[in-house]
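Retro notes, structure queue

What went well: the backlog is down to a handful. What didn't: a couple of records were mislabeled last round, so from now on we paste the full input next to the output in the thread. Example, using WxcM-like, C-terminal from Marinobacter zhejiangensis:
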Amino acid sequence: MSLVKLLSLPELGDSRGGLIAVEENQTVPFPIKRVYYIYGTQPGIARGFHAHKALKQIAICVSGKCRFVLDDGARREEVWLDSPTKGLVIEDMTWREMHDFTEDCILLVLASEHYDERDYIRNYDEFLKIGRLK
Ligand code: T46
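Corresponding output:
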């Protein structure tokens, strides 16, 4: 199975413009405890470069685009988030990198847990080691 799991978010807009609704335990397969957004990423800057032990997330580029790299220690796959209708499911124990942000990119993230730095694995070798123990 592919590491890239995309939710297709239905467009509810009309002639006035776009509208997309995202609902806990319906569109998103977990209770949403936190929402954050990344914007104004400077040219040439890449972000991420970590995994989470338990956190699950859905990432949506509500404006602009960026390229995600996902890695489970055995496979590395990439996907462009280039539409507000695409929700990328990022499972726990998945290394993620975000590259090639456009100037107008607003990356919205829905998270299954509150912020906890102890859940981060920011070293790739440690990520591989913990993954092998699981
Ligand atoms: C992820 C990708 C997609 C907080 O204090 N609270 C928060 O909820 C978040 C997300 C971050 N922070 C602090 C932690 C750092 O001092 O904000 C700073 C920047 O976070 P970080 O370097 O982890 O940002 P990214 O863009 O590398 O990663 C973020 C999320 O942290 C991460 O969970 O999966 O976006």
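Agreed that this is the format going forward. Reviewer comment attached to the example: Residues 34, 36, 38, 47-48, 57, 59, 96, 109, 115 surround dTDP-4-keto-6-deoxyglucose (CB under 6 Å).
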